[in-house]
Amino acid sequence: MTIRVAIAGARGKMGKEAVHTVMNNPEMELVSVLDYKEVGKTLADTNLFPADFTAPIFLDLKELHSKTQPDVLVDLTTPEFVYDHTKHALELKIRPVVGTTGFSDEELEELTALSRNSKIGCIIAPNFAVGAVLMMKFAEQAAKYLPDIEIIEMHHDQKLDAPSGTAMKTAHLISQERPIHEQGHVREKETIPGARGANYDGMRIHSVRLPGLVAHQQVLLGGDGQLLTLRHDSFNRGSFMSGVVLSIKTVMEKEELIYGLEHIIV
Ligand SMILES: NC(=O)C1=CN([C@@H]2O[C@H](COP(=O)(O)OP(=O)(O)OC[C@H]3O[C@@H](n4cnc5c(N)ncnc54)[C@H](OP(=O)(O)O)[C@@H]3O)[C@@H](O)[C@H]2O)C=CC1
Ligand SMILES: O=C(O)C1=N[C@H](C(=O)O)C[C@H](O)C1
């Protein structure tokens, strides 16, 4: 069976890569695109894609659904729109595969309940790169033994959310294994507010934004006379595409929301 895929955010850095990935996958068909620009045109009409990329562009998800009947909506847009897109897709019984980051805990809880109640699968993956997922899992394991931890995430300077979704997910996984623990000196004082980064359960997260970067993260675990450094680098957006393909295939078999690629990597 061919999986009918719609993409939101197709003109973006990740979206463009995902369009090519779906178009080149024999088990998938790109049936439509959700966007607020170039509505009524096709991808090819935008001059960003080859002439045979004829998926039509819609502004409204309901109309996109009724005219093109996608099985899956891949969302690669912005933190501002992703919650509405995902909720609306679930209500229309389109399975969301979401790479967009920036969800609040409350939004994730609401979408989890909606997915469970409607029995429509949904995958939200803060990072589709297998190496990044391994870094998170290794950090989770190491935190039991080395609970003094700082996360440094480094991204291109067009990124909207901070900390990154990957850093938030890493901190969440670590906090499940790490004993409750305040780090640093009890009388530590910031001379410039923010100098010590964001505080997640006593761990620190630092966000670096610079041109030239793609997506990079280090987890530093300090101990007496020692430092364990776990590092992952995505040098290009191709690094995320095997995770996108795996998620599109897997969401077809699910009836609940899955948060994180670690739950579906076999
Ligand atoms: N999970 C993962 O592995 C990865 C996740 N990401 C995440 O994916 C998201 C996209 O990243 P990236 O491609 O770098 O960002 P870009 O800014 O390059 O792309 C976002 C695209 O979405 C478009 N867009 C904005 N609003 C809407 C809307 N309402 N409907 C449809 N399209 C819309 C934007 O258009 P315009 O610019 O005209 O507003 C733009 O073309 C981010 O949240 C990022 O953190 C990124 C890489 C990997
Ligand atoms: O915006 C990005 O580029 C990325 N966003 C995701 C995140 O917030 O972790 C995944 C990856 O780091 C790239």
Task: Give descriptors for this structure.
about 270 residues, alpha/beta, Rossmann fold, Dihydrodipicolinate Reductase, domain 2, 2 domains, 7-stranded parallel sheet, 5-stranded mixed sheet, 7 helices, 12 strands, elongated, binds NADPH dihydro-nicotinamide-adenine-dinucleotide phosphate, binds the ligand O=C(O)C1=N[C@H](C(=O)O)C[C@H](O)C1
Description:
Keywords: Amino-acid biosynthesis, Cytoplasm, Diaminopimelate biosynthesis, Lysine biosynthesis, NAD, NADP, Oxidoreductase. The protein has 266 residues and is α/β, with parallel strands linked by helices. The protein has 7 helices and 12 strands. The strands form 2 sheets. Strands 3-2-1-4-5-6-12 form a 7-stranded parallel beta sheet, sandwiched between helices. Helix 5 runs parallel beside helix 6 (165-177). The longest helix is centred in the middle third of the chain and has 14 residues, at 105-118. Bound molecules: NADPH dihydro-nicotinamide-adenine-dinucleotide phosphate and the ligand O=C(O)C1=N[C@H](C(=O)O)C[C@H](O)C1. NADPH dihydro-nicotinamide-adenine-dinucleotide phosphate binds at residues 8-9, 11-15, 34-37, 76-79, 81, 99-102, 125-128, 240.
Bound molecules: NADPH dihydro-nicotinamide-adenine-dinucleotide phosphate, ligand LZUJQKHR
CATH homology superfamily name of the largest domain: NAD(P)-binding Rossmann-like Domain
| Secondary-structure element pattern, one letter each | EHEEHEHEHEHEHEEEEHE
CATH top level of the largest domain is: Alpha Beta
Quaternary structure annotation: single chain
Strand fraction equals 15-25%
The percent of residues in helical segments reads: 25-40%
CATH architecture of the largest domain: 3-Layer(aba) Sandwich
Low-confidence stretches: none
Give the CA-based shape.
Answer: elongated
Count of separate DSSP helical elements: 7
Radius of gyration: 20 Å
Can you tell me the CATH topology of the largest domain? Rossmann fold
Largest β sheet strand count, sense and barrel closure: 7 strands, parallel
| Structural class estimated from helices and strands | alpha/beta
**Care to count the β-strands?**
12
